[in-house]
Amino acid sequence: MSGNTSRFTSLALSALLAAGLATGSAQAEPAEAGKATAPSASSVAPGRQQIVARADQALTKPTKYKVTKNGSVRLSKPKGDNNYLGGRNLNEYNDYNGQQWCGHFAAAMWGKRGVPAKYQASQQWRTGLGNRFHKYDVRRLPQPGDVLVWSDNADVRFGHVGVVVAVRGRTVTTIEGNAGQGTDSVTRRSYDWNDTRNTGGPYIKNKKFQGFASPK
């Protein structure tokens, strides 16, 4: 082998090694430290996908409700991100009992499986599920199918819940019952997970965000 050929071969091998090292460095580059990431849609477990599908359907399907306790049953007319159910808390989710029904709605979206014993009360989603409730931490995002929990500033025995249907970056989107138009609708909302009002997390006026509950 001539001296020129030897030098050429040596240079070629050096170039290949350098390219390989650069590629390896790019592949091994870690994610930004301390930054929470959401799972991709394809990685969401089938049970969670079913919860999201139920919530999407609840937003768009005609739903039974009444405007008086002994009145006739009507069907709602969903429109966009709101499915208004008459303004009287009389609907198929709470069996027309006239009471607050966000907990009823969340339980229905979970298929009544793995729900708190007293799911009708919003704060049972915080206190009645043991280690399946996760206190708010800005570094830990919920997943589709989880239930967000707020308590009222005036009385922590009461509050609100909503079902997570999407997480994109730091934006969490829910479909909730007993919200929206007339506070008596199934409605879609989006929240900033990094919101710093109140004590942090998804913001609703006069409420404190507590965290989220996860299905079994």
Automatic annotation (TrEMBL):
Residues 186-195 have a biased composition (Basic and acidic residues). Residues 77-205 form the Peptidase C51 domain. It comes from the Bacteria. InterPro entries: CHAP_dom (IPR007921), Papain-like_cys_pep_sf (IPR038765), TAT_signal (IPR006311). Residues 1-28 form the signal peptide. Residues 27-47, 178-199 are annotated as: Disordered. Keywords: Signal. Gene3D superfamilies: endopeptidase domain like (from Nostoc punctiforme). This is CHAP domain-containing protein. It comes from Streptomyces atrovirens. The lineage of its organism: Bacteria, Bacillati, Actinomycetota, Actinomycetes, Kitasatosporales.
